[in-house]
């Protein structure tokens, strides 16, 4: 075990593990070592406070900056800070702890720092990890904590999210990371030996990755008595986690409660249900601005487009209001917040509200219109009014037909309570619920559904198998997924060639090394056989980033025209390739993305993703090949797609609508699809239920390819009766008669066949 001896002198150990040789990290003899006398995991609050108040940064050995002192004073006011002694004691005495506390009490920023001071991971060459379900939160909190610790982000404190690693091996000892990243690390190192303490934060969000990590860590904790685990939650779900972790260990898991220091929030319901919640939200914001006292407003809406539209209307209406009555109405700024917003723009939510006009009148007001991000992951100070329409976008998955949905749905009571809580952080506040009290009582679920019950589990199952978990049904889930969701995932992995008799195949093991869906990694692995791996790499990267197209509401026609110029008729996958290639060709033209209604940020991200996937390909000696003949190349690309997405094929039936193969679901091409004319057979990347059963990112395929490259799945004898089966049968018959006619002249010119 690479562990530690608690009697070690941590200062000496730090010297050993730190960079070799002298240099700035060697303190001058006159400076007293700030951590002297600290015994790992036996550190007291008094010791930590003394170190925090000291002149010298114990990790960089530099003198503290004035900014450090200023932030430290703010930290001292957080509820968690007042409980440092109690926390350190519980941390010393227990292996697993569940922490529950109001959003904004300082859990995410302070607890990991307390842990660092007690655990002293740097003295034993280990790390403390703190997971976050959202990328945005991992990045922004790591930045904040680096500032709090007077450290450059990416050195002792860093973050790691998919496709972006902001850490320095050997130096970083506190790492904020997405839960998905930690799960991936567990695949390489199932005991997570690098970590001395793992903190699962925002556990109440119940993402698939956090849920699976809880199951894994419960097992690891039994093998590794030196590993400490902290589960943090903003809601009373905490009791569930406490029971979960207590069950098998036989030792009860303590609950560490951070008392909220919140002010009362008056909750106001509407008398009647609101027919249009966006319109009602806008109206409520203006009513607050006109009639309520000073204080900022937080509005919860469901997505980027809705938020941008609402912000625009709020700004216009506020202007009208001010023009009518500039004496009693102050200035208003309206700021959007959602995850695809660039980081600098996300920072704007922390800006101070506008001042009063120079001519007098009341102070200005800041209105933040946000998705669920602001519910618990990010705390915005000085919010006094919350407008809660009662909806959010929620994931759904129907395993029977493999359809995913992201629908605007009613939030849970627990969510509604969280939202209301945001109004009482600085002084008594008000929460305007745009639904009736009756609906709150009778229509809303108690808790939000855990994601594991509403997700496609293909990648999760592959990860679990890679982790050596054989019995997926009996894995110790916090909430077990539906058996059908597991079966569907196993079936797909089996057809992809990743599993055989419940075991991971060599192909499956390689697939698991890519941080993308198994269907996509399969494409990368087989693409050299079709001599299009270079292009497939681009297409896969483009499918792994957010939508690259802009379509502003007042420039829809121009946007559509710009898109048409880059669209290739054979399929959206080739269009994605074309867009990326054109972007690269015009990389020096600063206006190119802008004039083509493309997101520069998304394309840049695609470039990063591409580079990272390429490194993984190189690691497995997967060649990067290309063909010079464009026609042949485009055909081969679509054939490659069949090798990964054969289960996502639809056939145009006699009535002119598309039916998915085997499941026979009627589907419709998404309006964003550029295929013209509509071909008989199509392959799609996504089947989403939104306003209709849409298939998105679609390309034409030939039925012969299905039989040739996905014969296992397109085994006609197992096909359900129907139009698709008849169509396939015709192809088989035709082929048989052709080949019998050709039998003596025949040199088979088939392409390289996939295994
Ligand atoms: O995790 P929890 O919701 O309990 O609180 P936190 O995220 O640790 O936030 C505690 C305080 O740190 C907030 O109220 C903010 O004042 C501050 N903070 C910040 O200024 N910038 C951030 N990116 C995160 C937190
Ligand atoms: Mg938090």
Automatic annotation (TrEMBL):
Reaction catalysed by this enzyme: ATP + H2O = ADP + phosphate + H(+)
EC code(s) of this entry: 3.6.4.13
Domain called Helicase ATP-binding: residue spans: 88-254
The entry's keywords: ATP-binding, Helicase, Hydrolase, mRNA processing, mRNA splicing, Nucleotide-binding
One Gene Ontology molecular-function label: hydrolase activity
Cellular compartments per GO CC: spliceosomal complex
Region (Disordered): 1-38
Entries under Pfam families matching the protein: DEAD, HA2_C, Helicase_C, OB_NTP_bind, WHD_HA2
Domain Helicase C-terminal, residue spans: 281-473
Gene Ontology BP terms: mRNA processing; RNA splicing
Matching CDD domains: DEXHc_DHX15 (cd17973), SF2_C_RHA (cd18791)
Chain segments annotated as transmembrane: none
UniProt similarity note: Belongs to the DEAD box helicase family. DEAH subfamily. DDX15/PRP43 sub-subfamily.
UniProt-recorded name of the protein: RNA helicase
Organism (species): Laccaria amethystina LaAM-08-1
